Amino acid sequence: MTGSLPLDEFHRILDILQTIDVGLVVLDHDYHVTLWNGFMENHSGYNLSQLEEHNIFHYFPELAEEWLRQKVEAVFTLRCASFISWELRPYLFNFAASRPFTGMSDVMYQNVTIMPLLSRHGDISHVCFIIYDVTDAATSKQALQEANQQLTTLSITDRLTGLYNRGYWEECLRNEFNRYHRTGHVSTLMMLDIDFFKKVNDTYGHPAGDEVLRRTSALLRQIVRCSDMPGRYGGEEFGVLLTDINESIALHVAERLRQCMEKEVVTFDGHEIRFTISIGLAEVNHEQQSALHWLQKADAALYHSKHTGRNRVTRFSLLSQS
Q1: Domain covering 7-142, topology
Q2: 287-313: per-residue pLDDT in tens?
Q3: Alpha-carbon distance 262 to 92, whole Å?
Q4: What DSSP line would sit under 1-69, residue for residue?
Q5: What are the backbone dihedrals phi and psi of residue 35, each rounded to the nearest 5 degrees, phi first?
Q6: Which residue among 176, 236, 247, 283 is the active-site one?
Q7: Model confidence over 238-297: pLDDT tens digits?
């Protein structure tokens, strides 16, 4: 008979559907299960006899019902397939990873294709979900992205202090200078230097000096805002871009930082090390021809603090008026 399928061929197709290493689920328009292959049985713990003619959302309440209904209704209406990527939604069914011990994930990442199924009359009465286990590819891509992010972080970070390194910080300085000339939003540059740092290294050793640098950086991160940009400029000198605040307000930040450093005690190898910092402030303005010129103003204010007693804050605007 034309169009008929031999019985042995029919059973062979059923065997393939049951043993294929992808999930196959067929739902009718009422979201009742009519096909649930071996892959789905193995990973869900339910067999077809349990699910058949039952609503899928009854057994899998973790499915995003409203979102999934929209996807499926679009397939019924448009009569074309829809694709769900793990990068947009990690999984459709919350299955455990097939290799929990040797793999890199506890959950199975899935790509899903939803296909319309034509009846003999040419209408769409069912949809078929094809669920692919893409855990290996997903975790490999995530690992690569993480490694790239780590490399990016390393390329802009000072290894000792964890602050921005000089190259990247100077780029931030130029960007902030250009932003001021585009928008008129004022920012203040703070340069600071650890007083008598050479004496710390000579007395207690360079590892102790490194600990003082790390502690200075940690306090700096605690006091400045998330939007500010602290960096290690070189040696014991640091720079901070205090964004969107003028020199007067920056003075309060600088004084708080100076006082915290003055009270700080670094314990290293049985020694208590106390230290202070000197600070220079300079607000960006139209008289400065470049970011370097802005930096020179802040450095001049820092130089004044260092040579008039240390452990103090100098504002360039007041210094230039004297």
Answers
A1: Beta-Lactamase (3.30.450)
A2: 999 999 999 999 999 999 999 999 999
A3: 56
A4: -TT---HHHHHHHHHHHHHSSSEEEEEETT-BEEEE-HHHHHHHS--HHHHBTSBHHHH-TTS-HHHHH
A5: -145, 135
A6: 236
A7: 999 999 999 999 999 999 999 999 999 999 999 999 999 999 999 999 999 999 999 999
The pLDDT of residue 4 is above 50: no
Which structure tokens are listed for 73?
Answer: 């209704």
Collapsing DSSP states into helix, strand and coil, what is residue 299? helix
Decide: 28 and 13 in contact? Cβ < 8 Å: no
State how far the Cα of 90 lies from the Cα of 127, in Å rounded to an integer: 21
Q: Which two tokens stand for residue 307?
A: 């040579």
Q: Tokens 């360039």 appear where?
A: 316
Task: Return the closest-CA partner of residue 259 out of 186, 312, 214.
Answer: 312
For 163, phi and psi rounded to 5 degrees?
A: -85, 175
Domain boundaries, the chain: 7-142, 157-319
Give the least confident one: 9-18, 43-52, 165-174, 230-239.
9-18
236 an active-site residue? Answer: yes
What is the third-level CATH fold of 157-319? Alpha-Beta Plaits (3.30.70)
Give the torsion through C-alpha atoms of 175, 176, 180, 182, to 10 deg.
30
